[in-house]
Every structure is written in C-alpha cells, then in structure tokens.
Amino acid sequence: MDQNKKKQVCFLWKEAYDEMIRHCLQASPLEACGLLSGKGSSCEKVWRMINVEKSELSFAMDLGEMDRTFAAMKLADHKFTGIYHSHPTALPIPSDEDIRHSIYPHAFYFIISLKEPKPQVACYLIDQLEAAEVEIVIL
Ligand SMILES: [Zn+2]
C-alpha cells in the first residue's frame, strides 16, 4: 500500500452498510459478494449477487447476472460505484487473489470481515495490482 498518497474518502449510505453486513452474515460461512451503486461516486444501494464458487475462501460473480444488474442500475439512474465481498474468517484485507482479480480501478472495493464478533468493514481502491485503503464515511 502506498502510504504517501492522501487517503481517499468513500461515502457509504448507512442502509447500504447495514445491508452488506446482513448479506454477509446470512451467507456465512460462505463468502458473499455484491455490487454497489449510487449517484456521483457515493455508494447508496446494495445489489446482492450470487457467489457462483459457493466457497468459504473465494468468490466469483456470474457475468450474466452482472450485466442484468448493471442494466438495472442504469434504469435506476445510478452508476456502478462499488463491489463487496466477505471474509468469513479473515481480516478485511485484500488477498493476493482479490488484488489479481480486481478489474474495476474506479470502484470502491469493500471487504466485510466476520472474523470478530462485530463485523469489520474496510474499503480500498485497487489499481494496477496496488490496493490503497480508503476512508469510509457513513451517511
Ligand atoms: Zn477476499
């Protein structure tokens, strides 16, 4: 992580924050995943996605479901602004695989850790195999 860069800020609506955690707790012990949308660059709405890998250690989304979700976002006059997945037993730090598979450098990349009794959420921007932590501001 590049600590010299000033930390960016991500605005996340409280309902979206709560919904992400709810989804991840329901899917546990499997990893959950989903997308976020909003106006401008905020993350306002959660779109739950199916983890087609049905794994406790990884996730992948179905491309058809992603296309349909991007279309639904457009209809809602929203932009795709974020992506999330859970770490049922690990800290909210992107794994090497997360970083390698990340293909949306402008999307806020949330990881919800269920390792501790109280879920922990962290957010990153991942670009060119570099993850920079982003400060979350809950609205
Ligand atoms: Zn991960």
From TrEMBL:
One of its GO terms (biological process) is proteolysis. Residues 10-139 form the MPN domain. Transmembrane segments: none annotated. GO terms for molecular function: metalloexopeptidase activity; zinc ion binding. SUPFAM superfamilies: JAB1/MPN domain (SSF102712). Pfam families: Prok-JAB. Keywords: Hydrolase, Metal-binding, Metalloprotease, Protease, Zinc. InterPro entries: JAB_dom_prok, JAMM/MPN+_dom, MPN, VirAsm_ModProt. It comes from the Bacteria. The keyword Protease applies. This is M67 family peptidase. It comes from Bacillus salacetis.
